[in-house]
Design brief:
With 386 residues, this protein is an alpha/beta fold. It is built from 15 helices and 10 strands. The longest helix has 20 residues.
């Protein structure tokens, strides 16, 4: 089963003069946006830099400083620069901001493809924990700082390019692509030809109705993997394409695990019990009034803050220790919020348990015992039926 790297190695040899820009190209670019361009590109510079020329920079290796995906990201870069399709791909208007005080992680880059036009791309949540804290606030009606920045970014970039262009991103980047397209200036919105959200969180229905969604709806493509979790969060719009994916559970969120065969996404199907569980979670969260949602989100961000880790890399080095720190911190909140969070965790672990691999059973049982130690046996349902 092929993935985005395999797609670039094979289908990437077809120039845009033969085959027009496709959704599979958009996913490849969305993953490319995760590379760390900070030491290679000037912030918001309109100067277009060839992707292949970055190899000549002394700081080239800084592109791959995210150790979680260093190997596949290097393979992705090599596949891009070796392809006829993207051999002249140009980069501009790069920005990357991390602000722990207002819980903001925002990054975007603009790709120019001779023969295919411009793709404005928003990066999803990276390894910084502050980004995951910001993600939790997407459940609220009021925009988070990253969303506000995305609309400003789109307006700024549009003033520096000509003609129609596409917008997209993976994970939170998909949410920002949709938000910015709804909330940019109307003259800019009218120039957008396509909007891609790859497993990006959705919006409250009331938010869509009051923020120009009707104007862009026919240009939006929402694409999710068959065990999507992130892309079905807060989603009131059920119109999406489902893609087959390798691995299990939340690992399917990673673009490298999406299956592409013969130049096209291999279509998959959502399991009914998976959809039902997420529908129940969304119904609970989205039915809260703004005060209740604010309480939940504040608690969730504090919970993530209690992990005592600044990046998901640190978290993964000793996930059990950080999760138990968070669980113990939960004891300090009021009973109503605690009950809501217990229901939330139960839903999450049911989804995880539904797709858990056999070789994870021992680790899950160990974590089960630790959770029971903190909360008590009666509080925690056995995870994944293990």
């Amino acid at each position: 089963m092929g993935n985005i790297v395999d797609y670039l190695k094979s289908f990437g040899q077809k120039p845009f003069s033969e085959v027009n820009f496709k959704r599979e190209d958009a996913l490849c670019l969305s993953q490319l946006s995760y590379l760390k361009f900070d030491e290679l590109l000037s912030e918001m510079s309109p100067e277009q830099v060839l992707l292949k020329d970055l190899r000549n920079y002394k700081t080239f290796d800084a592109l791959f400083s995210d150790v979680r995906y260093e190997k596949p990201n290097r393979e992705l870069y090599d596949a891009f620069t070796a392809s006829r399709r993207f051999e002249n791909l140009k980069l501009s208007f790069y920005i990357n901001r991390i602000d722990t005080e207002d819980e903001t992680q925002f990054s975007a880059i603009t790709f120019t493809m001779p023969g295919a036009g411009v793709f404005v791309c928003f990066r999803g949540t990276d390894e910084n924990m502050v980004g995951w804290q910001e993600d939790a606030r997407l459940a609220l009606n009021k925009p988070v700082e990253g969303q506000k920045l995305s609309a400003r970014y789109l307006d700024d970039v549009a003033s520096g390019i000509h003609g129609p262009f596409m917008v997209g991103g993976h994970s939170k980047g998909g949410n920002l692509a949709m938000y910015s397209s709804m909330c940019c200036h109307k003259a800019v919105r009218d120039r957008i030809s396509r909007i891609y959200s790859f497993d990006g969180p959705g919006f409250r229905r009331s938010f869509l109705e009051s923020h120009n969604y009707a104007e862009i709806e026919d240009r939006v493509e929402r694409i999710i993997p068959k065990s999507s979790y992130v892309g079905l969060m807060f989603a009131s719009d059920k119109n999406h394409m489902v893609v087959e994916a390798k691995e299990l559970g939340l690992a399917q969120h990673i673009p490298y695990n999406w299956v592409i065969e013969r130049g096209r996404f291999k279509e998959g199907k959502l399991k009914k019990n998976h959809v039902n569980m997420l529908d129940a979670f969304n119904k609970t969260v989205l039915s809260l009034d703004e005060k209740g949602a604010e309480t939940f989100v504040n608690y969730l961000t504090e919970l993530m803050g209690s992990f005592d880790a600044t990046t998901t890399i640190e978290l993964s080095e000793d996930v059990m220790k950080h999760m138990l720190n968070a669980a113990r911190a939960q004891k300090e909140v009021d009973e109503e919020t605690k009950k809501f969070m217990e229901d939330f965790l139960k839903t999450y672990f049911e989804i995880l348990g539904d797709s858990i691999n056999n070789d994870m059973k021992d680790k899950t049982s160990e974590f089960q015992a630790k959770l029971e130690e903190v909360f008590g046996k009666r509080k925690i349902k056995k995870l994944g039926g293990v």
